[in-house]
Amino acid sequence: MDIRNCPECGDDTMNAGLASWPGIDGPVDVTRCASDECDWVTIDSDLEVRVVDAHAVAA
Questions:
Q1: Which domain of life is it from (predicted)?
Q2: Number of domains forming the structure of the chain
Q3: Residue 5: half-sphere exposure toward Cβ, Cα within 13 Å
Q4: What Rg value do the Cα atoms of the chain yield, rounded?
Q5: Which residues span the domain enclosing 13?
Q6: Which end of the chain has the smaller Cβ count within 10 Å, N or C?
Q7: C-alpha separations of 46 from 9, 19, 59 in Å
């Protein structure tokens, strides 16, 4: 399922590309809020991995 609106602020989301993730073999899809004021970010929801420190991922 694609997340089209940020669950934090309601703004649109955008694909932020691929990234390496600790404990996961291979790159994962990253989705972030389109608003620069919001730090919400998630990785591929099919992996069932929760982002704990969104600020570190967004930086």
A1: Bacteria
A2: 1
A3: 4
A4: 11
A5: 1-48
A6: N
A7: 23, 15, 23
Residues present in the chain in total:
59
- Contacts with 11 (C-beta within 8 Å, 6 or more apart), sequence order: 5, 33, 34, 35, 38
State the pLDDT at residue 49.
54
Tell which residue, 23, 12, 27, 16, has the closest CA to residue 54: 16
Kindly give the residue spans of alpha helices, DSSP state H, lying in the chain.
54-58
What tens digit of pLDDT does each residue of 19-51 get? 887 878 888 888 999 999 998 988 875 665 555
Do the domain assignments include residue 36?
yes
* Residue 6 · residue 14 · CB < 8 Å: no
Determine if the pTM surpasses 0.90: no
Helical (H) or strand (E) element with 29: strand 24-33
Q: Is residue 53 a part of any domain in this protein?
A: no
